[in-house]
Amino acid sequence: MRLFRFLRILFTLARHRWDHSRTRGARLRVALQELGPIFVKFGQLLSIRPDLIPEDIAQELSQLQDRVPPVDPAQVDQALREAFGRPHAEVFGTFDLTPVASASVAQVHFATLPDGREVAVKVLRPGIDKTIRSDVSLLYLAAGFIERFSADGRRLRPREVVREFEKTIHDELDLLREAANASQLRRNFADGRLLVVPEVYWDWCTRTVMTMQRIDGIPVNDVDSLRKHNIDIQRLARDGVEIFFTQVFRDGFFHADMHPGNIFVARDGHYCGVDFGIMGTLSDEDKNYLATNFRAFFHRDYHKVAVAHVDAGWVPRDTRVDEFEGAIRAVCEPIFDRPLKEIYFGKLLMRLFEVSRRFKMEVQPQLVLLQKTLLQIEGLGRALDPDLDLRRHAQPVLERWMNQQAGPEAFLEKLKDEAPRWARTLPQLPLLVHRLLSDDTPRRLERTLMQLEATQRRQTWMMGVIALVLALLAVAYILRL
């Protein structure tokens, strides 16, 4: 049965392939919609990569960001009744059952709270959890085929990648978790200088419904509207790079679904984020590893990049560092300090795949979300400002973070973290010193050592006696012969 579900992909794509009443982009979009939410998310990622696919297809797939066919209003009404245990008219002041945005997993409605505050309400699609489980099992089947029949199967670690995706997509089905993500991100950018995150209204949140402050903004990919409002497009592109690197290196907590349907721009030119169902996290070890690689790349220190990969175990230990360094240099030098419009990302990806295959690089599942987000950020930057130099604007953020990790600020932070432990330990030091001085442990240890030494001497004497007896017996035996 799982195999039949896999064949469903081929039949669906083939059926729409010959439907000439639609454009080729529309045929692909409709096929992905019918296949389910996971395929819709794949289409969302492709939609911001016009450098990888034809532009007419990218334009059509952009509808998957927030214009997926909506749920019937009666089903929305029932979902709200189940979530709150009463009709939505008794929960909200007003509620528009017609969604303003409809995506693969949920859709958004405008409403007002009883006190008149304007809110956006996100409602999960009914039965979406069952659909997700079915599609994830399909991905596991595909991963199994890759591991079994592909020469690169083990290196790509497809099952682990799917497992990471499964954890992420199931988190997205719990809107209380998403609300907590939004609150955390709002605290991280509390000054509002770079990013505005809507406030969550917890009394109107459940596992299937999330209510937050309504954001009035312009979609980030609507460049014409941004220009009409006199928003500095170049500054917007630079801010996007800084927001991404700040989330990754300062916080280790980043928005991992940054397609245009989730990013808006306020009238004053500030970014506004929505949809926090997919968030990525990085350990200190991952952050330090990435920072080392980015910094070395920015300084064209390809030897350090190669050594970092070997030390982290991303390539086999017996890899020749000089050969790996040369391969990295051949990929990176042609694009160094070039604006986005001069980087052909499709060719770059092919070169990277060739290098990874040659040196048997293993995929790191914990970084798949970050890599996907980096693709989205680069695609957004390309759309806003093709002349953007990623290195020039990312390097100051990275250098500042590295200095904070090794400078006086980091030392003070570590002192603050250790202060509670020292507060408990310091008052006990006099007692510990007194016990150490008054304890007869050293004398007991000395006596034990003397006993061991005496035992060893006795054993050596006995072994000598035994050897002498054996020698005499041997001599007597020889004389008798």
Automatic annotation (TrEMBL):
Regions crossing the membrane: 460-479
Keywords per UniProt: ATP-binding, Cell inner membrane, Cell membrane, Kinase, Membrane, Nucleotide-binding, Transferase, Transmembrane, Transmembrane helix, Ubiquinone biosynthesis
Pathway of action: Cofactor biosynthesis; ubiquinone biosynthesis [regulation]
Biological process according to GO: ubiquinone biosynthetic process
Gene Ontology molecular-function annotations: ATP binding; kinase activity
ABC1 atypical kinase-like domain ranges (all copies): 63-306
CDD domains to which the protein is assigned, alphabetical: UbiB
Matches recorded under InterPro entries: ABC1_dom (IPR004147), Kinase-like_dom_sf (IPR011009), UbiB (IPR010232), UbiB_bact (IPR045308), UbiB_kinase (IPR050154)
PANTHER family named among the record's database cross-references: CHAPERONE-ACTIVITY OF BC1 COMPLEX CABC1 -RELATED (PTHR10566), PROTEIN ACTIVITY OF BC1 COMPLEX KINASE 7, CHLOROPLASTIC (PTHR10566:SF113)
Family designation: Belongs to the protein kinase superfamily. ADCK protein kinase family.
Name by which UniProt lists this protein: ABC1 atypical kinase-like domain-containing protein
Organism: Usitatibacter rugosus
Lineage of the species this protein comes from: Bacteria, Pseudomonadati, Pseudomonadota, Betaproteobacteria, Nitrosomonadales
